[in-house]
Design brief:
The complex is a heterodimer of chains A (227) and B (569). By secondary structure, chain A is an alpha/beta fold. Chain A has nine helices and nine strands. The chains are: A alpha/beta (227), B alpha+beta (569).
């Protein structure tokens, strides 16, 4: 479902010098598989997720989603692939404050090829236990509720892969497990591959597949080796 | 969920900011709508009032525009007067006969009195004693008989074959509301004014109350009057009330109140024309007001009217035998003024023009301008001292068009340019409103991009937001503008005679005429230039265009949003 080969990312600094921050020789995820990518801050977790989502282009390498090589396509095609095949749960939820919970979930379908269905959005919100908060706006909801809306939104477009960037970082400890359970359970139900990036051990301990980015990413690994 | 709904939600989310932006735009649009509507309606009224069912105005030589303004719109200084005989040149045989018989009767009475006076002075005449005086009177009598033959009583007027009708009007007096500074123009005319003239919509005058006055009215004699709707409303007068008119403009040194009372016999329905602000008095009564009796070159020593009761009792001429008119003794107390003592301000002439090409109008204008009307004066040795014998004949439509081209149209464009500038400033407020919220928007845009929105999507959302703000402001402004129009209607109507209703759009215009130089002279270009529509309808595309222009910068900014960077904020 997801296949990365020789993915490198180099940023140009303001002084013109180039800094490589990512060098992943190989990484893959099968359909419906659930994995956790852990690593300390600054090891390139979010950059890797952005590259997989087509938000950031790799300097070189291959990124295949559902056997489609996204690096060959234009930005507009990448946007379309992201709209149709990917779901994204952000660390800070990123719900749009102008919209109700239902509309935020529908927004996840608005840019995909399928029709934005309110019944699908309603069903997802009921599944995450927010059937009674359909018309509530984010600012009136608790942090845990907001993250549940974000999970529902990420699943709304029936993605092939769900990417979650520190999904429990801003959730209180009581709700962290609930959020992880929701994500895993719903991905399982819809046969969605799940890649969670986190540095929380209590999250990673629940997964059978845990990869360390500071080992996968040769830039960090080499730096540590040098050190 | 549509992009439009996303844009609308964004507007709602920025409630106060959006509201202030909408109000700013609404104020601009309100001014544009108000200026367009009121200016357009007043201009339209100005234009349409110049075709009141007459084609030409004949008056004293001078400025054609002044004659038109004073005769059609009752504006400005009244022009000089012309002899009443000029009116008779457009009349049929019967009308002329009645008028001339009246003059003959007055003259006969005068000569009879002079003969008596001559006999009384036989003994005192300096040349040839009393016989010399008798010889003089005999000569005068002979001369009068010659005049009578020359009057051609049984002939129709010189131009009568070319006209449907001619209506005389006399201006210069005013009606001042009692205990108030407000005054309205008075127009002396005959009943044909109400019966023959048509308004711009081809309708005749209608009466809210009462009726028109007759020339010799069975109820009020010669002293009837009709009030325009605005005058009646302002003065609170009703049928049967009596008013006095002022000579000249109240407050000026020459102004004085006439003693003669005129009885209101009718109140007109509103016409949306300057006639709403006029008091129409019976011309016959107007002539009989003492200082309206014009002096003539040869003093005949006759004075008429009820004002000088002592003299009138002694010098009252014989009653005119007018077929079909039965007057009581009391009404006969005042007798119509003879032709040679009458003057008029203007003649409103409807020409007989079956083909509708205006050829008759042109045919009439030339001889009148060349002075042919003066030949109609040759029957009488008496000349009004104040009337001008040289006349002019103007086409009011052409005069109004000239006036429009030089004054009204440029003023309109200046007003429009100012209000358009206001709209542009309001448009900029949209730009400022959106621009100020861009830092917050970049994050929202990045989230939408992460959810799959393309650059074109976020760009369209920003443009849609600008357009929605602009249209919401436009709708509010349109509503406000027309509400303002309706609220100002009494003032506008009072000043111009034109009522402005809530739903009245600005009248259609050739709005693409300004593009003519760019369009060229092709047939297609001519069709485009000829096309007429209300300029208010341009507001919708205009506002969308304005919104797109001011929305472009935020849209480009949205287009360029760095998703990865903005997501991290």
């Amino acid at each position: 479902m997801l296949s990365l080969k020789n993915v490198k990312k180099t940023f140009t600094q303001p002084d013109g010098s180039k800094t490589q921050i990512l060098d992943v020789p190989e990484y893959s995820l099968a359909a419906g598989e659930q994995a956790v990518l852990i690593g300390p801050s600054g090891c390139g977790k979010t950059t890797l997720l952005h590259i997989i989502a087509g938000i950031t282009r790799p300097t070189s390498g291959s990124v295949k989603i559902d056997n489609v090589e996204i690096t060959k396509f234009s930005e507009a095609v990448c946007d379309r692939i992201r709209a149709n095949k990917l779901g994204y749960v952000f660390q800070t939820f990123n719900l749009l404050p102008a919209f109700t919970a239902l509309e935020n979930v529908m927004l996840g379908m608005t840019f995909s090829s399928g029709r934005a269905s309110s019944s699908r959005a309603r069903e997802l919100l009921e599944r995450v236990g927010l059937g009674h908060r359909l018309n509530s706006r984010p600012k009136t909801m608790s942090v845990g509720e907001q993250q549940r809306v974000a999970v529902a939104r990420a699943l709304a477009n029936r993605p092939k892969i769900l990417l979650a960037d520190e999904p429990t970082a801003n959730v209180d400890p009581a709700n962290q497990q609930h959020v992880i359970d929701l994500i895993r359970e719903n991905c399982r139900k819809e046969n969605v591959a799940l890649l969670i990036v986190t540095h929380a051990m209590e999250v990673s301990n629940q997964f059978s597949r845990v990869d360390r980015l500071d080992q996968i990413n040769l830039v960090v690994a080499n730096a540590r080796g040098v050190a | 969920m549509s992009l439009l709904k996303i844009a609308w939600r964004s507007i709602q989310h920025r409630g106060l900011g959006s509201l202030l932006t909408i109000i700013s735009m609404a104020l601009g649009v309100m001014m544009v709508v108000s200026v367009l509507s009121i200016n357009g309606l007043v201009s339209e009224s100005f234009r349409s009032n110049s075709s009141f069912g007459y084609d030409l105005i004949v008056g004293a030589r001078g400025g054609g525009t002044q004659l038109t303004l004073s005769s059609v719109f009752y504006l400005g200084k009244t022009v000089e007067t012309v002899p009443y005989e000029y009116y008779l040149a457009f009349c049929d045989q019967k009308t002329r006969a009645v008028e001339f018989r009246n003059s003959i009767a007055v003259r006969a009475n005068t000569e009879q009195q002079r003969a008596i006076e001559a006999l009384n002075s036989v003994r005192t005449h300096p040349v040839g004693g009393g016989w010399g005086a008798i010889a003089e009177e005999l000569a005068a009598g002979f001369h009068s008989r010659q005049q009578i033959e020359f009057m051609q009583i049984d002939e129709r007027g010189l131009f009568s074959n070319y006209v449907n009708f001619a209506i005389p009007i006399l201006l210069g007096d005013t009606y001042q509301i009692e205990d108030s500074d407000a005054y309205f123009k008075a127009c002396a005319t005959n009943k044909n004014f109400f019966e023959l003239l048509t308004l711009s919509n081809k309708q005749k005058f209608t009466f809210a109350q009462g009726r028109p006055f007759d020339d010799a009215d069975a109820e009020v004699g010669y002293f009837g009057c009709v009030m325009g709707s605005a005058v009646a409303r302002a003065s609170g007068k009703k049928i049967g009330d009596q008013i006095k008119v002022t000579h000249g403009i109240p407050g000026t040194s020459a102004a004085h109140l006439h003693d003669q009372l005129f009885t209101i016999v009718g109140i007109l329905d509103p016409t949306g024309t300057p006639n709403d602000k006029v008091v129409f008095v019976n011309m016959e009564g107007f002539y009989l007001i003492n200082d309206h009796v014009k002096p003539i070159e040869e003093e005949v020593g006759i004075k008429f009217g009820q004002n000088d009761e002592d003299e009138a009792e002694q010098e009252k001429p014989a009653a005119v035998d007018e077929p079909g008119v039965e007057l009581t003794d009391e009404q006969l107390a005042t007798v119509r003024l003879p032709v040679e003592q009458r003057e008029l301000t203007a003649l409103l002439v409807s020409v007989y023009d079956e083909e509708g090409f205006g050829i008759t109008s042109q045919y009439l204008q030339q001889p009148i301008e060349q002075g042919n009307l003066a030949s109609t004066l040759s029957w009488s040795q008496f000349r009004p001292l104040q009337a001008q014998t040289s006349a002019q004949c103007v086409n009011p439509v052409q005069e109004v068009a000239k006036l429009f081209a030089f004054f009204v149209a440029p003023a309109k464009w200046i007003l429009l340019a100012l209000t358009t500038l206001i709209c542009i400033v309001s448009g900029l407020s949209i730009l400022v409103g959106i621009y100020n919220s861009m830092s917050q928007r970049h994050h929202e845009i990045a989230v939408m991009r992460a959810l799959g929105a393309r650059r074109s999507h976020v760009m369209l959302i920003m443009l849609a937001e600008a357009i929605l703000l602009s249209l919401a402001g436009g709708a509010l402004g349109w509503f406000g503008g027309h509400t303002l129009n309706a609220a100002l209607s009494p003032i506008v109507e009072n000043q111009t005679g034109v009522p402005v209703r809530f739903w009245d759009l600005a009248p259609p215009e050739q709005i693409f005429s300004l593009l003519q130089p760019a369009l060229g002279n092709s047939e297609f270009a001519a069709e485009i230039v000829k096309f007429q529509m209300s300029p208010e309808l341009l507001l919708i595309p205009g506002l969308i265009l304005l919104a797109v222009l001011v929305g472009v910068y935020p849209a480009i900014s949205a287009y360029r949003t760095d998703v990865a960077k903005s997501l991290g904020k």
